[in-house]
Amino acid sequence: MYEFAVNVDSILVILLLVVWSAAGLLAGGLPTRRRARLLLVLIGVGTVVTVARGIGTGLLWSNGWVFVADRVLVALPLLAVPMVAMFALAVPALRRIAGRRRATNGTAETAETARTERTPETAGAPPAPFPVSVRVSVRTTAAAALLGAFMEYLSRPLPPYGADMAIYAGVLLVAAAASRGRNPRPRRAGTRRAVAVTALVATAITGAGVYGMRTSLLPDRMSMMGHGDVDYGGGPGGSHHGSRASGVPAVKAVNAADLTGPRTGTGTPDRVFTLTAQETSIRLGSGAVLDAWTYNGQVPGPALTVREGDLVQVTLVNRLPREGVTIHWHGLDVPNAEDGVAGVTQDAVQPGESHVYRFRADQVGTFWYHTHQRPLVGVRRGLFGSLVVLPPEGTAGEDITVMAHNWERPDGLVAAFGTSDTLDRRPVRPGTPVRLRVVNTDRNAWSDVESRNLVLLGTRFRVAAIDGVDLDGPSELDGVRLSVAEGGRYDLTFVMPDRPVLLADLANPRAGLLLSPGSDGPATAPSIPSDAPLFDPATYGTPAPAPFTRFDRDFTVIIDDRIGFHDGTLHFLPTVNGRGFPHTPVHMVRQGEVVRMTFVNRSHQVHPMHLHGHHALVLSRNGRPTTGSPWWIDTLAVQPGETYEIGFRADNPGVWMDHCHDLGHAADGMVTHLAYEGVSTPYEIGHGTPNQPE
Ligand code: C2O
Ligand code: CU
Q1: 435-463 pLDDT, tens digit each
Q2: Between 526 and 61, where is the model more confident?
């Protein structure tokens, strides 16, 4: 609904621009009867479209004031003011001009219409234009429509709107003054003026473009700490190193590089792995052969399965010919220096080099690992694998992990499970308890506004865990659609029935994991429903008392998008609080604090927001508190029009990258940081460094 209304609104903005500009041009011509009539028609159409935009705005209002404030406070008043003048003054004048013939043929002809009628034919004298009321009100409305389009596509202002209102009103006043000019001019002068105005506008646009492009260029090297505005979220702050003499306790300076897991020599690792990044050509289920980047020559990389409490040691070796690589343990809240983010927690590991990660696996659940050096390229090409932490006693039955990924086949993008872009069969004995761990590594292959949509058919099942955290009291589900955020995980449990069970991705009904109860003959997959209702974690399972009752910091993250530059190239840019990286916020906290973060998605796309190093509890959606099981996330899909509040405890000091896990969006600057006061990172990012974490 929101996406639809917002997209219609964007179209109405263009319509308004076209209609009011046409009216503005007409108002500059000779006041013939035909022009006057056409102008009246355009005014009628423009008014209808304006009213439609008003109604649409009213509808969007139900999503929250922040979704419509720019329209209500700035865009619509800008249009309304000149339009009122237009109806009061211009429309009567136009009707007189349009109705001249009737007046001539009728009884009386007013002095005014007689004068306007004759003037164009008066030899020698300059022809009289439309009355000043028409020129000014119609052209000012056109200018307001232009400002409206600028707001919608290029600026998308955020509250408070005081400055925007003042600037736009000023521009409108100038436009009103400028449109008083007595047109039409003699042809030549008119052309010259048009050329001059066009040149001026072109220069201004080019200038603004070049300025925007230049200022969007990322510096050659910069610290991830030093970007944007530091946001203290209403908490204490202002001192990075505890030098403040006020009542706030001093914070000890910490180097993020020292925040490691148990170091070599301090304990024998329980599990030792080596992951070698290398170029490999892989074959998809359909037979398509792709050049991939892999860990250990396979996609997904080796499934790392460990037990709770294990000290895990992973050596990363880079044998890629040119590309740097890291490993980020997505969802596992490891110590900061083990987080594997190039330029934030380490330098990217260069070809021929290696790096050792050591951490204790303290959370039971489903996680995954992937490179965090140019992940848009690296993860998409295959540098990922699963990481499962089992309880000490292990699990009974079948434990199956599937990683939903998209592959760029020669014939286009295709959704797959692992490398199978066709049906993957697997026998499971009836009566066996099954835990199906679904990891989503990638975006919905078909939609910008929804996360990946999966269905599990042929059995009733429970969503036992989300993002590696078990849900309380999950009830049985049947035939629902599961929307899994990019980067998120769902654990599905059921007892294998005596008929086939199918896990399928709605974006590619030909791919799927088919569990068949026996080895006798090929099982037929259940058919995929087209209208499965959406599973909602906000109301699923048994509630528990809220662990957070007060918050030390409150951060608001307003997600939006507009046309703009990022690092020198023009994009449809996702923004955080109006800007892209590096002008995005650093959220500053202190250890032990309780933090509330509010995501507001005013944009046209879904954004899976991912927190490093922390799990957060979903508190509310669209103003309504969650009523189901505590729902902990590390990756939360925020759909257009949605508002989410999440809460977490700042219990893992470091410098953490928080970003949109639509890796294309992150690469376009949808990156923020969570920083602990006193902690600084020695690493740098930029073209002049080996590190491009997004
Ligand atoms: Cu899965 Cu910052 O990443
Ligand atoms: Cu995004």
Answers
A1: 999 999 999 988 899 999 999 999 999 99
A2: 61
Q: How far is CA 308 from the centre of its chain?
A: 34
Ligand 1 proximity of 26 Cβ (cutoff 6 Å): no
pLDDT at residue 101 above 80? Answer: no
470, 507, 506: which is closest to 489 by C-alpha?
470
Which atom of ligand 1 is nearest the CA belonging to 666? 2
Contact 387, 441 (CB under 8 A): no
Distance in Å, CA 670 to ligand 2 centroid: 7
HEC profile of 213-281: HHHHCCCCCEEHHHCCCEECCCCCCCCCCCCCCCCCCCCCCEEHHHCCCCCCCCCCCCEEEEEEEEEEE
The arithmetic mean of pLDDT across residues 142-168, rounded, is 90
Token duo for residue 407: 């592959």
Q: How many whole angstroms from its chain centre is CA 447?
A: 13
- Residue identifier of the C-alpha nearest atom 1 of ligand 1: 330
pLDDT class of 208 with cuts at 50, 70, 90: confident
Closest ligand by atom to 669 CA: 2
**Which residue's structure tokens are 């590096």?**
582
Return the C-alpha torsion angle 638, 640, 643, 646, nearest 10.
Answer: 10
For residues 369 and 326, what is the distance between their CA atoms, to the nearest angstrom?
10
Q: How far is the CA of 447 from the centre of ligand 2 (A)?
A: 13
3-class state of residue 154 by DSSP: helix
CB–CB of 582/221 below 8 Å? no
Q: Is the CB of 571 under 6 A from ligand 1?
A: no
CB of residue 370 inside a 6 A radius of ligand 1: yes
Cis peptide, bond prior to residue 160, ω within 30 of zero = yes
Strand 384-390 vs strand 365-370: parallel, antiparallel, or unpaired? antiparallel
Confidence of residue 244 (pLDDT cuts 50, 70, 90): very low
Residue 387 pairs with which residues in a beta bridge?
Answer: 304, 367
Whether the predicted pLDDT of 119 surpasses 60? no
CB of 372 sitting under 6 A from ligand 1: yes
659 lines ligand 1 (CB under 6 A): yes
